[in-house]
Amino acid sequence: MAPRKRRPTQPPPSRHPWAADTELVGLVLELTANAPDSLYTQYTVGLHAWFLDQVRQTNPELSAYLHDGQSEKPFTLSRLDGDFLTSGKNLKLKPNTTYRWYITALYQPLTQWLAEWVDHLPDMIQLRRAVLNIRRWHIALAPTTYPHLSTPTPTHPQSLSLSFLTPTSFRRKGHHFPLPVPTNLFHSYLRRWNDFSDHPFNQTAFLDWVEENVVIQRHRLESMKVAAGKKGVVTGFTGAIALGLDSGASQHPEFSQLFHTLAQFAPYCGTGHKTPFGLGQTRLGWLSPETPALPSMETLLAERISELTQQFLAQRQRQGGSRAQDIAETWATILARREMGESLQAIADDLDMPYQTVKTYAKLARRAILNNDR
């Protein structure tokens, strides 16, 4: 395993809206649009790039660390929460409608950077041709620390609920696993906890306890495919789940405490993978089924990428290994987004690929589809 990149340090700011020792916080920005601008389907890639650039402008070392310097990402970014218009193959913003964008941080240097940033917010976010005005910000998840979050309490309820607002998925044997199995949930939370807190717990022992003692009491779940990150498709679940403890759980009170601590931690860290691209947004409690769904164009794009990926894989004589899958996903992502009306240059920018390479892949993908139709 490669050595972990040294984490940057940052002195506490002179002014901040929360204590200087804060390690976790969640914000929500309220945004509005002046015009019915088109919003490209994978705009979460643009939000991710915009946020990292905001950090880079004042703290390049921290930005580099957030981008690629650690095994776990110390932040989550949501999709835009609000009403969209659909027009042909595009999403459109509704003028004078409020959109909410959630940002969480679970790493002290980042929470302190956010404290200064909210004091000097830019006027707008530009996502290609779409402009969103930043009106105000609020605290969405209370500022806290890891020791405070893990403070023992005399009693705990025997059950708790978690709601998953956006598609949530785990990686398992090279595939997506779209089910909230308790060991997967708490493995996801504990990895992040152990990576960013100074109070790590034994992972194997705790997950064995979860396997034996945590039971699913009820659930309301729906699965869907969504294009997430720079390429490829994720099959995930949304909905809510209620978890309870078996009678034998009381034999290990320290694990019962950790079970409840990590549930409190879940809204800050998100669930599963690709949380910096809007997936795995999690809340404590059983939320109503009226939680807004993803715009349908995102689902359509995901389904098209998945369909094309399978076609390209079927055409390749050697389908084993990750290289064939990676090439098929790249071709499928480029062609599907091109079919949705995006320019090759915009796709190249999002994928961090040379324009000529994207152009070549688009031609090869079209040729493969034509050959398949003959």
From TrEMBL:
The keyword Hydrolase applies. Residues 27-82 form the CRISPR-associated protein Cas6-like N-terminal domain. Keywords: Antiviral defense, Endonuclease, Hydrolase, Nuclease. CDD domains: Cas6_III-like. NCBIfam families: cas_cas6. This is CRISPR-associated protein Cas6, putative. GO terms for biological process: defense response to virus. Residues 162-282 form the CRISPR-associated protein Cas6 C-terminal domain. GO terms for molecular function: endonuclease activity; hydrolase activity, acting on ester bonds. Pfam families: CRISPR_Cas6, CRISPR_Cas6_N. It comes from Coleofasciculus chthonoplastes PCC 7420.
